[in-house]
Specification:
Order of helices and strands: EHHEEEEEEEEEEHHEHHHEEEEEEHHEEH
Distance between the termini: 13 Å
Helix content: 10-25%
Oligomer: single chain
GO molecular function, one term: dioxygenase activity
Pfam family, one: Rieske
CATH topology of the largest domain: Naphthalene 1,2-dioxygenase Alpha Subunit, Chain A, domain 1
Keywords: 2Fe-2S, Dioxygenase, Iron, Iron-sulfur, Metal-binding, NAD, Oxidoreductase
Structural class: alpha+beta
Family: Belongs to the bacterial ring-hydroxylating dioxygenase alpha subunit family.
Bound molecules: FE2/S2 (inorganic) cluster, fe (ii) ion
Protein name: Large subunit aromatic oxygenase
CATH architecture of the largest domain: Alpha-Beta Complex
Radius of gyration: 22 Å
């Protein structure tokens, strides 16, 4: 039973392995879209990256025909994981077990001993199994469900702030990654709200770099976006080298953007740092996150160097404005083994009905996400007393 007040979430959903298994089926293999990459990570024919959709290994590859496809990273013979590198460039993918080989478009092109296979065996039926994929400004989304709505419909009004993050046209250049495994349930990682930012993160306060007059929107599909006002960082006595937090972007009045898509996707633009977070729920108490940083295709070499310095110092597990999160995710996770509910308070206007506009530092913007989660998981709300 789920509490009847919409701002209360039962703690037991964070640490229960049976619920985690249910989440894989209903959410990660269900009718949602999951961000797994950006086309700029695979600019050339034969480029690939591997990732996981829940527990299912996937292979994202740009074929000889220049099309990006997503396959299950599992051999169609006996199921062996085919590619183990995180990324690279190949002419073909060969399964080591019995050397079946697949071209970059997924077709089976070689299998030793074929003459002695089952009568009627046809290579054409044994290509790598392709998943449903859609792109939005170069963002690569995957789903293993045929029931997910078209991507743009699923994104809804979040498409606009997402477009801002991607520089308007999604023409990006990959700068690099931070990769981390947080010791927490994926939902605790995902609940990183607008309320905590200036309170938990000392650097937010010290740099005094954020206004507060921004706004948030949230949708029925469980997505939300923060459009934060940006107060440009001024000279301060905390950094020996303030150039690290300089803002050289086109229009500072745009502020910063944080987009969270249900269930686990995050995209942000803070100052000149463009960041996409690809996440994998590893187990009930481990969440792997790949922070990928980007510049724009049109950037000068100097701008790219600036973005690399800023990105690698600002965000991620060791970033100035996010380093405290890792410890909080773990502490939230440990705390959820005690009885009762967690509560949302900041910006909660009422506890019996939902609304969709929020202030920059409200935590209430996550309530629609939780409602979507509750519905997808079929948890029944306790009747009103
Ligand atoms: S399992 Fe891949 S070739 Fe046999
Ligand atoms: Fe945070």
């Amino acid at each position: 039973m789920w509490p009847n007040h919409i701002n209360k979430i039962p703690k037991e959903i964070f640490g229960d392995p049976a619920i985690f298994e249910m989440e894989l089926e209903r959410i990660f293999y269900g009718p949602e879209w999951h961000l797994v990459g950006h086309v700029s990570e695979l600019p050339n024919k034969g480029d690939f990256k591997t990732f996981d959709l829940g527990r299912r290994p996937i292979l994202i590859a740009r074929g000889e025909d220049d099309r990006v496809r997503i396959f299950y990273n599992a051999c169609t013979h006996r199921g062996t994981q085919v590619e183990t590198s995180t990324c690279g460039n190949r002419k073909s993918f060969e399964c080591p077990y019995h050397q079946w080989s697949f071209n970059t478009e997924g077709a089976l092109v070689g299998c030793p001993g074929e003459k002695e296979f089952t009568p009627g065996f046809d290579k054409a039926n044994y290509g790598l199994r392709e998943l449903r994929m859609e792109q939005f400004l170069g963002l690569i989304f995957v789903t293993s469900s045929s029931e997910a709505p078209p991507l743009e419909e699923w994104l809804g009004e979040i498409a606009a702030p997402l477009t801002d993050i991607l520089g308007g046209d999604g023409k990006l250049r990959l700068l690099g990654y931070h990769k981390v495994i947080y010791a927490s349930n994926w939902k605790a990682y995902n609940d990183n709200d607008g309320y905590h930012a200036p309170l938990l993160h000392s650097a937010f306060r010290m740099l005094n770099w954020q206004g507060g007059k921004g706004r948030q929107i949230a949708t029925q599909s469980g997505h939300n976006a923060i459009e934060a006002e940006l107060s440009l960082p001024k000279g301060n006595r905390f950094l020996n080298d303030p150039s690290l937090i300089e803002f050289k972007g086109a229009d500072p009045r745009q502020g910063s953007r944080v987009v969270q898509l249900f269930p686990l996707t995050v995209a942000t633009k803070h100052l000149d740092t463009i960041n996409l977070r690809f996440a994998i729920p590893r187990s009930v108490d481990a969440t792997e996150v790949h922070y990928a940083y980007f510049g724009l295709e049109s950037d000068s070499e100097e701008m790219l160097r600036h973005r690399v310095r800023q990105s690698s110092n600002l965000l991620g597990p060791c970033g100035m404005i996010s380093m405290e999160d890792a410890s909080i995710f773990q502490r939230v996770h440990l705390g959820t083994f005690t009885p009762g509910n967690v509560e949302f308070q900041k910006g909660v206007k009422r506890t019996d009905e939902f609304w969709s506009d929020f202030k920059q530092n409200d935590e209430a913007s996550f309530l629609l996400k939780w409602e979507h989660y509750r519905k997808v998981m079929d948890f029944e709300r306790r009747p009103q007393a």
